[in-house]
Amino acid sequence: MILEAGLADAYGAGFEFADANDILVYNTLKEYRKHPRYASIYGTYTDDTQMAIAITELILETKEWSKLSIADKFVEVFKRDPRKGYSSRFYTILEQVSSGKELLEVLHPNSNRNGAAMRSYPIGIYKREDVILEKSEQQAIITHNTKEGILSSKIIALAAHYFLYKKGSKKHLIEYLEVTLSQHFDFIRTSTLKMEALPTVNTVIALILDHKSMSSCLIEAVDLGGDTDTVASLSLAILSLCKDTIYDLPNWLYKDFKNDTFGKDYLIELDNKLSNKLIE
């Protein structure tokens, strides 16, 4: 799940907010593409996966979740391995603060963008839905304390949970989300140019429902344009959990994925640890 998210994040990052003609020409799933503004994230993941790693480590450490413990983890994970991809404002804040306490003091968490959703899928590992809903909200309010930010976080975590615990087939996913969250959803592909939370989640769920092939899902996630790394990362993270998924990602995507201290092997290690937690 986390490895697939990282791979898709790295591939999608090269096309984030790219010109439609460039996407048409270069989105061939033959190589990672350098983003003109973020050359340093070529062949590696961005803030999307880094923040999901932070959530995963919190889960595995079994610490009590609080605003402070979550914020501390966000700062810790960034400081040990600074990565581009964050908004310029948030990146600067993370550079300047030295603790979760300082982060909480300077943040104004009124954003309705997709930052809370992009990191929430590991929360699906919990067995109880009330715990998932609680923790999805806890982590969302640190940076996205809005109705849209919180709801998007819950949708992604529940979707991952649905497939992790084999609660049903794809065709019943929407019904499951509607019943659990007590509201109606229209999950259709929506522009992510503004990086808004619900349009992102709408697009991700639509892609998951319409694709079996990991490769075709990744290609379409990028073809849609906009916030391609977030849509691609979330789509493949959750699609990787579906029992009818065709695992046809090209070998080069794995081979050329950066394997530094917190690279490919570390993502595999986290996936294995989460799998063991699922068995428990």
From TrEMBL:
Cofactor list: Mg(2+)
SUPFAM superfamilies: ADP-ribosylglycohydrolase
Alphabetized InterPro entries for the sequence: ADP-ribosylglycohydrolase (IPR050792), Ribosyl_crysJ1 (IPR005502), Ribosyl_crysJ1_sf (IPR036705)
Residues the record lists as binding Mg(2+): 46-48, 227, 229-230
Top-level taxon in the UniProt lineage: Bacteria
Molecular function, one GO term: metal ion binding
Cofactor note: Binds 2 magnesium ions per subunit.
Annotated keywords: Hydrolase, Magnesium, Metal-binding
Homology family: Belongs to the ADP-ribosylglycohydrolase family.
Designated name of the protein: ADP-ribosylglycohydrolase
The organism's taxonomic lineage, starting at the top: Bacteria, Pseudomonadati, Bacteroidota, Flavobacteriia, Flavobacteriales
